[in-house]
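Lecture 7, part B: from sequences to assemblies.

Below are the input chains for today's worked example.
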Amino acid sequence: MNSVAQRNEIVNQVIDVIVDAVNLRHVDKATVTGDTPLTHGGLGLDSIDILEIVVAVEHKFGKKVADAEVGKKYFQTIGTIADFVLLPGKSE
Amino acid sequence: MSSVYITGMGAVSCAGFGAARLWRAVLADESNIERGLGRVPDTAEPGASRAAFLARAAFEEALAQAGWRPAPGDGLILATTTGQIDLWEQPLRDFFTKQTSRDALERALHHQPLGSLTETVQRELGLRGPAMLLTSACSASTQALAMAALWIRSGAVRRCLVGGVEVLSGLTIEGFKSLQLLSEATCAPFDSARSGINLSEGAAFFCVEGAGAREPLCELRGWGFSSDAFHVTSPHPEGRGCFEAMNAALKTAGIGPRDVSWVHCHGTGSAANDLSEGIAVYHLLGDTPASSTKAIHGHALAASGALEAVICLSALRDGVIPPTHNLKSPDPKIPASLIREAVRKPLDHILKNTLGFGGNNAALVFSRAGGPA
Amino acid sequence: MKASVVAAARIENATEELRPEFRRATANMKLCASALERLFEQAPALDRRSCGLVLGTSFGELETTSDFLGTLAAQGVARPLLFQNSLHNATTGFLSLHFKMQGPTATLCDRAHAGHYALTTALLWLEAGLTDWVIAIECDTPVPALPHEPLPRAGAAAALLTRSDDEGRLTVELDARATAPPDPLGWLASAPSGGRLKLPFAP
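Predicted structure of the full complex, as structure tokens:
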């Protein structure tokens, strides 16, 4: 699988994880892309949702968010979460 | 309206057993937080309820001070968020990892309803009168004292025992950790570098009665409740709800902002709480001295209002405003007049403020009995 | 102390409707929200902003607490959303947020008489002038997966009260000699117009 296809696959998995973690069953998944922000102008989620998503992503992909700075940097859009997942190593 | 008085108090906290131990730790700037948590040093008998053990230590002290022999018609109002969780949390966790039987879990879960703590205390003291338990998060014991005043004023009871009880549990420790609200270092309320709260455990009880009270510790004179309707766990950023509760407490007390000698703040050391509360305190009370004592005894959730009421009543008795401990570099965004060194002066009215998850705010006014109107 | 009951409702089952604003709501929250919607339909002119709210519950958010501890035990994962919802007062927090209610709010627990105390607390708040309007509500949800004693009552029952004598279709009054029905809020929800409920302060 090339890197674009691999990232797209991770983006789709991240969407599934988020829909499940913060119960977005009412959202049409077809409208969500890698560029969709988690908060304003996107999924409209709040800080507690993001914490829940961090926990769910960590559990699903077996990769730890090392600190709040890393969380802030990567938990912006679906795509940046996919970037986090694709980083080498178990913790970032 | 008839007056309501507090005639006895008792406390157990991470500073040890007794109201005097807690007050001494506050005056000596002796923090009892270890690795970010405040544990009560002694333990209950194995298998016995730790929550009931802490409650018993505190109510026995309060009853002795007030000279009360509990009568069947006395009222009881408790406050807790997790009650006797020490009796059922581990069996429930074991149930999910198939390490305990359904029968054992059923016996343990009998203690899950918070009302089971009320039943335990009623049974121990032979109380058969009105008994209620409030669980409005960290404002619960502040509300409990206010409700006791309403019970007495309405004539529902002549006397009421009021207490807040909280034990440390996996639920609260792991839960607050998951919200990234815990500090592993001793908390630093209102400091620029504050990094979170220190969970703690403890219990504090009060004997509350109406007219005819002998040698009261204070008059319980004002109360106010409000809701933020802003966010599930974060307070309103400018302290809207918190302002309303404190303002209502001054109104019921029949006093103005300038009459308040000291505000004992909730001041948990969390970024959002301290900013919100500090703004509300300033807007309502201007440069009235304000402080938080959480760096000494931690945050005992539903019991925090009661434990800190013990500190308020001690301050009123001794004429000392304790400082905000561990405040090295006050947050310039917080305009309240924060006290960093103890101030000795006669105190007339103390405002005790609390905020809670769910946007639950509650405030009380404790006044010197027989003091100025 | 006497008050008028302007609206009352009983809800047996939480809505299954997929409403975005309920995506994080527990069963108790959905039950109570449905009950409050019924009250507000009966009292459209109510100023919700200053209305008080007292919730009585036996088991509180047992289901969410159990979900939190179960996930922690089985997977080692502490889920923040479950924790914030596990506090028993999360229900009133959700309601005050959802309906923009900023009046006095309290949550109380009692094994068998939570509804009774919610009602007497509401009456005292009116008497003391803490608020002019107050909702007393009781709510519990069974958790079939757990072996626990039977619930006193599953579902939610609520009543909207005010001090004024002539506004309501029912009245409720404290009377030390009265014998209260076991489920006073449920009684109000099913009482015909003109009904009068007398109850002692303690059950």
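Note for the exam: The longest strand of chain B covers residues 218-227. Keep this in mind when comparing with the next example.
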